[in-house]
């Protein structure tokens, strides 16, 4: 009798029906009134009393295994039938629309800036986010005791002061100038890191775009005209720019660039704090020390560089008042950029 039980157990396990009707037929054959299980039960009545305990357990096991398997197969067959009915009953039914994603505003602005400078002959250059002191500071003419090297601003990796997260994309200037010969025209987008408290106007991770042009006879006038072209493309045809003297270790002379406020057209409003101007970037003529550090003859070549924060440009362009919105990935914020560019 044990053999018969085992044989039936095996057949139950191996049974693979093609339709719900197959399952039902199998169920009747095994579990039906005149089915194989009941035949075994009948046989069980006449086994010797000392075998009853053992065989009874085997029969119970068989019964629950058969029930469980048949129920599972029936559910599977029903689901498959429902599926094919759903797809086949009305072939004219519209498909399920896939939801379209939106580009992140930071990507939109980065792409636009890259595209504007590409028209002026710039190509994109990138560099590593984990850098060394030379590419981020020393080659850019930062004196050894410059405050930007302090632990306050720079994230160091482990305790090694020579392995750090870049604090600006100016490091890509250095990488480009050590690898290419002039003429050089690159635009360098990237993520940068500073040890700053997070607020509506600052974050410890943000994005910058750096520009660099090195050739014979590049002048400040070229810089100003290129930036005016950029400002008009990004902020509109009537945009004006002005430059204020400033200081960066890697440029001489250096300037900060303001664009006329695109909200009030320069009349003065609360976004431009009544001045009519918005600060958008730093720039200047590449310091000869920087050219020389990178192996470029500063007597033959000159160049200009500029750097801007993408979050800031995006805030001004789209009127976003809190920089943290860019990092929270709230779809209600992101969806508003669906139709942009
Ligand atoms: N690297 C500067 C910063 O992070 C921005 C900058 C200013 C870049 C002037 C430049 C430049 O290339 O010429 O604040």
Verbal overview:
There is one protein chain. The strands form 2 sheets. A 7-stranded mixed beta sheet has the order 1-4-5-9-8-7-6, sandwiched between helices. The chain has a two-stranded antiparallel ribbon with strand order 2-3. The chain contains 12 helices and 9 strands. Helix 1 packs parallel to helix 4 (49-88) and helix 2 runs antiparallel to helix 4 (49-88). The chain folds into 2 domains: 2-89; 105-340, Bira Bifunctional Protein, Domain 2 (BirA Bifunctional Protein, domain 2), CATH 3.30.930.10. It has 341 residues and is an alpha+beta fold. Helix content is 42%, strand content 18%. The chain has helices spanning 2-14, 20-31, 36-45, 49-88, 105-119, 133-136, 170-179, 220-235, 288-293, 310-318, 325-328, 331-334; strands spanning 123-124, 130-131, 164-165, 184-193, 205-215, 241-248, 251-260, 277-286, 302-309.
Helix-strand layout with pairing:
Layout: H1 2-14, H2 20-31, H3 36-45, H4 49-88, H5 105-119, E1 123-124, E2 130-131, H6 133-136, E3 164-165, H7 170-179, E4 184-193, E5 205-215, H8 220-235, E6 241-248, E7 251-260, E8 277-286, H9 288-293, E9 302-309, H10 310-318, H11 325-328, H12 331-334
Parallel strand pairs: 1-4
Antiparallel strand pairs: 2-3, 4-5, 5-9, 6-7, 7-8, 8-9
Helix pairs in contact: 1-4, 2-4, 3-4, 5-10
This protein binds 3,4-dihydroxyphenylalanine.
Give me a quick take on this structure.
The chain has helices spanning 2-14, 20-31, 36-45, 49-88, 105-119, 133-136, 170-179, 220-235, 288-293, 310-318, 325-328, 331-334, and strands at residues 123-124, 130-131, 164-165, 184-193, 205-215, 241-248, 251-260, 277-286, 302-309.
């Amino acid at each position: 009798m044990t053999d018969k039980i085992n044989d039936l157990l095996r057949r139950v396990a191996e049974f693979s029906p093609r339709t719900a009707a197959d399952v039902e037929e199998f169920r009747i054959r095994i579990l039906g009134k005149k089915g194989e299980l009941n035949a075994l039960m009948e046989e069980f009545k006449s086994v010797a009393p000392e075998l009853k305990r053992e065989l009874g357990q085997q029969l119970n096991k068989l019964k629950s295994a058969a029930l469980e398997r048949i129920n599972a197969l029936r559910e599977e067959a029903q689901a498959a039938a429902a599926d094919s009915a759903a797809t086949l009953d009305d072939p004219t039914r519209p498909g399920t629309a896939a939801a379209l994603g939106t580009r992140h505003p930071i990507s939109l602005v980065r792409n636009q800036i890259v595209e504007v400078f590409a028209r002026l002959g710039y190509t994109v250059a990138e560099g590593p986010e984990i850098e060394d002191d030379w590419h981020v500071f020393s080659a850019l003419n930062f004196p050894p005791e410059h405050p930007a090297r302090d632990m306050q601003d720079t994230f160091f990796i482990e305790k090694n002061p020579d392995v750090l997260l870049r604090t600006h994309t100016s490091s890509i200037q250095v990488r480009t100038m050590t690898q290419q010969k002039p003429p050089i025209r690159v635009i360098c987008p990237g993520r940068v890191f500073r040890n700053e408290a997070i607020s509506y106007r600052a974050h410890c991770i943000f994005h910058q775009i750096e520009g660099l042009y090195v050739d014979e006879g590049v002048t400040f006038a070229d810089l100003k005209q290129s930036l005016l072209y950029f400002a008009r493309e990004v902020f509109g045809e009537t945009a004006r720019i002005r430059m204020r003297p400033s200081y960066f270790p890697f440029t001489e002379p250096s300037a900060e660039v303001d664009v006329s406020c695109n909200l009030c057209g320069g009349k003065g409003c609360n976004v431009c704090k009544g001045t009519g101007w918005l600060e958008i970037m730093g720039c200047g003529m590449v310091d000869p020390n920087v050219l020389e550090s990178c192996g470029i003859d500063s007597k033959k070549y000159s160049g200009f560089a500029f750097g801007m924060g993408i979050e800031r440009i995006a805030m001004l362009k789209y009127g976003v008042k809190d920089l943290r919105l860019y990092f929270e990935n709230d779809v209600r914020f992101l969806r508003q950029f669906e139709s942009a560019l």
